[in-house]
Write a structure and sequence with these properties.
The protein is elongated, with a radius of gyration of 39 Å. 42% of the residues lie in helices and 24% in strands. The chain is α+β, with helices and mostly antiparallel strands and 449 residues long. About 6% of the residues have low confidence. It has 13 helices and 19 strands. The chain starts with a helix and ends with a helix.
């Protein structure tokens, strides 16, 4: 950057050299006109003054231009220095400086891929988004793998347990290899083979549990109080029919109440749900119990389709984006008009909570059980250029009329804890009469008939 003294020198140059230039020009005119007569002196003198004026103006313009350029350079330099300081203090700048310094000083070798994944994972973790995730190319491929209809595997429905960095078993499918082996809902799978889920990443670990029929899945779970009990499994994979909806008539000999269990909400669930309702109605039931205990949620389009069948005309969901704008999705006037109850617990999450809360908002159903998980937000998957992906929470979804329950949960109308026998057994092994939460719902439904 030029010093202030330079400006002073330019001004001095202009002030002191202007007379010198004028005298020089004057001398030249005198020398050139000494042989001319008096008649020409007047015209020459006039030309001399014009030339002096032009030269002075040119000199002034040159000096002014130089000063302007200097001031502009000085301003640009100040802006550049400011931007440099701002960049150095930014997240990107600090990370670049840290990376350069570390590489200069570190004596060991750096695994570039591992470093990149750790930095990206750390960024997501630092944002505070509980459901945000960076997925490597392999993890994203595992996430998007198609598992429609009949599939091969061990037959469990799982969710991510962020508190323990494990895979949580939320349900075990009927007639599945996992059920036969003794896997229980609530088990935390923290090792697959000899590797920890926390190190593998959720999606990769889930992918490792999957496989072709006839092969073996080996994993270790923790269960019991404070997850202190450890149990290892070696389960032979088989063919499992994915059925997100199952139904039956209450087995007390009366036949007036139909029970529909929904394990998750995916693309096939609406059709299965319709079949369940039609089948139970054909058997003459007068009331319905929807069991969404241990249901981790699922696709928005699936839950909207099902709630549209159940609700009268009006809002189903109010989606609030990051810009604060609200988008309302509504149902038509057609509805299933029957007495209803919904069974919920602490593992009822996301879309299953919306299902419960929407029916509660319209006074269509009584909720029985315990407070739900509390996930009232939606994530978006963004595929990146290299095939990896980002999952980020992009909106809150509010029930039709009540407040958002994210981090709070949905409260039941009738609070009742599950009996110890119910808590320690697989839900598919419990007779209706032994399910105290179900029986509480039955009592409520029959009391209002």
């Amino acid at each position: 950057m030029l010093k202030p003294s330079y400006y002073t020198e330019l001004i001095i140059f202009y002030v002191f050299y202007k007379p010198f230039l004028a005298n020089t020009i004057k001398h030249c005119f005198l020398q050139g006109n000494c042989f001319k007569g008096k008649m020409e002196r007047g015209a020459a003198l006039k030309k001399k003054h014009v030339l002096i004026a032009v030269c002075s103006a040119f000199l002034a313009a040159v000096v002014t231009f130089q000063i302007t350029v200097i001031f502009m350079n000085s301003s640009c330099n100040r802006q550049i220095e400011s931007l440099k300081a701002e960049y150095s203090n930014s997240l990107t700048g600090k990370l670049k400086i840290l990376d350069e310094k570390f590489r200069q000083l570190y004596v060991g070798e750096i695994d570039e891929k591992k470093l990149e994944e750790a930095v990206l994972d750390g960024y997501i973790s630092g944002t505070g988004d509980l459901y945000g995730e960076y997925m490597t190319v392999e993890e994203y491929a595992a996430f998007t793998s198609d598992q429609n209809g009949e599939f091969q595997g061990i037959g469990i429905t799982v969710t991510q347990n962020t508190e323990y960095s494990a895979i949580e078993v939320v349900s075990v499918m009927p007639d599945s290899p996992a059920l036969e082996a003794g896997v229980e809902r609530g088990d935390l799978i923290y090792m697959v083979g000899t590797e920890y889920v926390s190190e593998l990443g959720y999606n990769i670990a889930v992918k490792m549990l999957q496989g072709e029929a006839g092969t073996t899945a080996e994993f270790t779970v923790r269960r019991g109080e404070n997850y202190e009990e450890e149990k290892s499994f070696s389960v032979l994979r088989g063919y499992v029919t994915e059925q997100t909806v199952s139904w039956h008539v209450l087995d007390d000999g009366i036949g007036d109440i139909g029970i529909i269990k929904i394990t998750s909400f995916d693309a096939k669930t609406p059709d299965q749900f319709t079949n369940a309702v039609d089948s139970l109605r054909s058997e003459g039931v007068a009331s319905l119990v929807f069991d969404v205990r241990n249901n981790p949620g699922g696709e928005l389009t699936s839950i909207l389709s099902i709630l549209d069948m159940l609700l009268p005309e009006g809002p189903i969901i109010r989606i609030v984006g990051s810009d604060g704008k609200e988008t309302v999705r509504s149902s038509d006037a057609s509805e299933i008009d029957m007495p209803m109850a919904v069974l919920i617990n602490g593992h009822t999450a996301s879309a299953a909570e919306l299902f419960s809360c929407a029916l509660q908002d319209y006074d269509k159903a009584v909720l029985v059980g315990t407070i739900t998980y509390g996930k009232g937000c939606m994530q978006q998957i963004v595929k990146l250029a290299d095939g990896s992906a980002l999952r980020v929470t992009v909106s809150l979804y509010n029930p039709p009329y009540s407040d958002n329950y994210d981090g709070i949960g949905v409260s039941p109308d009738i609070f009742i804890e599950a009996d110890e026998k119910l808590s320690s057994s697989n839900i598919y092994d419990i007779a209706d009469s032994d399910d105290n939460q179900l029986m509480a719902a039955v009592v409520q439904l029959r009391s209002v008939e």
